[in-house]
Write a structure and sequence with these properties.
single chain; alpha+beta; SH3 type barrels; Fumarylacetoacetate hydrolase, domain 2; 5-stranded antiparallel β-sheet; globular; phenylalanine catabolism
Length: about 300
């Protein structure tokens, strides 16, 4: 990968480098909600770039960046969104004076600390999957027989459940401790009250935006055409409520009271350099689930608990 240098000052150890450039929705005291791209401690206001003609040759819909969500932008397709991101990356390169020396630069570059980040997309549906054999096994040990933690179907098909899209919130929004029924092993009958076993799950969520018709199927070869990018996802869980309610139909109130996502959507293009072959699937999956190209990513995630 060629080394890229930018004229924007990037704090040491920042995640928002010239290689990343994630999309998000922001506003501040003087600006209405709009689409931005993060770099360092700044947000690139794409609506101002558009007004100044920096995207003129892309023939974008008028006002596409003055939106309260990324949905309309994502609906343009990955060919267009990739061109937009590449154009911004080019404008931010150290040897490109077009934005660096432009009189509009001060309006385009917004301080991130002065911005309020909003939910990046309007979410119509959300499905939560077991991400790995280790994930599925740990859940099995938590709620079932530890000696038979991994159910036999996991090695053959994606295992997931539909969550509650309406309770997904942007990172930083406070949540309420849920109430529900729980029954500990030493209890003769269930009780009702606030959860006593709140938990979190650090996950990676992907944002899909290309539409399909009812009854259509998407092959594994075409799947990435439908994935715009990734966000961090905190799947808040009330383990005592979940343990009592999840049999036989799966999670309900113990997993649906809140889920937090990061406000910045990292594109597939930004993560290409982290691709690698996944674990060998044994036994082999059925042909319709096989992937010809690497579809796993080497990404280190950490969670810190602050009292």
């Amino acid at each position: 990968m060629n080394e890229l240098k930018t004229w924007v000052e990037i704090p040491k150890n920042s995640d928002f480098t010239i290689y990343n450039l994630p999309f998000g929705i922001f506003k501040n005291k003087r600006l209405s909600p709009r689409v931005g791209i993060a770099i360092g401690d700044k947000i690139v206001d794409l609506s101002i770039l558009d007004q100044e003609g920096f995207f003129a040759d892309l023939f974008l819909p008028e006002g596409i960046f003055l939106s309260e969500s990324l949905n309309d932008l994502i609906a343009l397709g990955k060919t267009q969104t990739k061109k937009i991101r590449e154009r911004v990356q080019d404008l931010l390169l150290a040897d490109n004076e077009k934005l660096r020396d432009h009189s509009i630069r001060g309006k385009v570059m917004v301080n991130r600390k002065e911005a309020e980040m909003l939910l990046p997309v309007k979410i119509g549906d959300y499905t939560d999957f077991y991400s790995s054999m280790e994930h599925a096994t740990n859940v099995g040990k938590m709620f079932r027989d530890p000696e038979n933690a991994l159910l036999p179907n996991w090695k053959h098909l994606p295992v997931g459940y539909h969550g509650r899209a309406s309770s997904i919130i942007p990172s930083g929004v406070n949540i309420h401790r849920p109430k529900g029924q729980f029954k500990d092993p030493d209890m003769e009958s269930p009780s009702f009250g606030p959860s006593r076993r709140m938990d979190f799950e650090l996950e990676l969520a992907f944002i899909t935006g290309k539409s399909t018709k009812l009854g259509d199927s998407v092959s594994t070869d075409d799947a990435e055409d439908y994935i715009f990018g990734f966000v961090l996802f905190n799947d808040w869980s009330a383990r005592d409520i979940q343990a009592w309610e999840y049999v036989p139909l799966g999670p309900f109130l113990g997993k649906s009271f809140a889920s937090s996502i990061s406000p910045w959507v990292v594109t597939m293009e930004a993560l290409d350099q982290f691709r690698l072959e996944g674990p060998t699937q044994d036994p082999e999956v059925l042909p319709y689930l096989k992937c010809e190209t690497p579809h796993s990513f080497d990404i280190n995630l950490e969670a810190y608990i602050q009292p």
